Amino acid sequence: GVCRRLIEADRKVSLDEFVFYTLLEAHLGARAGKPPERTLNSLEALSVGVGQLLALLAHAGHEVEQEAMAAYSAGQKQLYVQLDDLIPRAKLSQNGVSKALQELKCLNPKLKARLVKAMLAVVLHDRQVHDAEMDLMRAACAALDVPLPPVLSSV
User: Fold this and answer.
1) Which residue positions in the chain have pLDDT lower than 50?
2) Which of 13, 58, 114, 136 is the most buried (most CB within 10 A)?
């Protein structure tokens, strides 16, 4: 609605705007608090969306491409699923990540837990949690309808 149009008015969506809108939709959107309409039992089918989410996290915490690739790889190892190579920062679409989060919300609880573990591996790869990573973790966990991992709850 109106909020989305305001955010997109300047034809670019900042990371803060993305986080804000994702949290807004997760808590107040039409589907807030409702279970997904279907349950998905495969991460492989959503590997493109998983790759987009992990890439956004990797780039949020690492300015240097090789460091982002290492963080992305750390996350991929937790999934036991083959993902495409790290999407370059300039090619990442926050609309794509939003759509991916909507699809990933349909994962069964066990696969959501594995996904959150992979996200956490990306964030903690360098043993630092940057503000942008923390904000993205909060937004992604809210969108997936899962709790924030306890290790990050106190950050």
Assistant:
1) none
2) 58
- 26-56 pLDDT per residue, tens: 777 767 777 778 888 999 989 999 999 999 9
User: For residues 10 and 70, what is the distance between their CA atoms, to the nearest angstrom?
Assistant: 33
- Please give the Cα distance from 122 to 137 (Å, whole number): 10
pTM attached to this predicted model? 0.86
* Angle, helix 47-61 to helix 94-104, in steps of 10 degrees: 130
**Residue 8 confidence (pLDDT):** 65
Mark out the alpha helices in 81-130 (DSSP H runs): 94-104, 109-124
- Contacts for 132-135: CB closer than 8 Å, 24+ residues apart: 132/15, 132/60, 132/61, 133/57, 133/60, 133/61, 135/15, 135/16, 135/19
d(CA 141, CA 145): 6
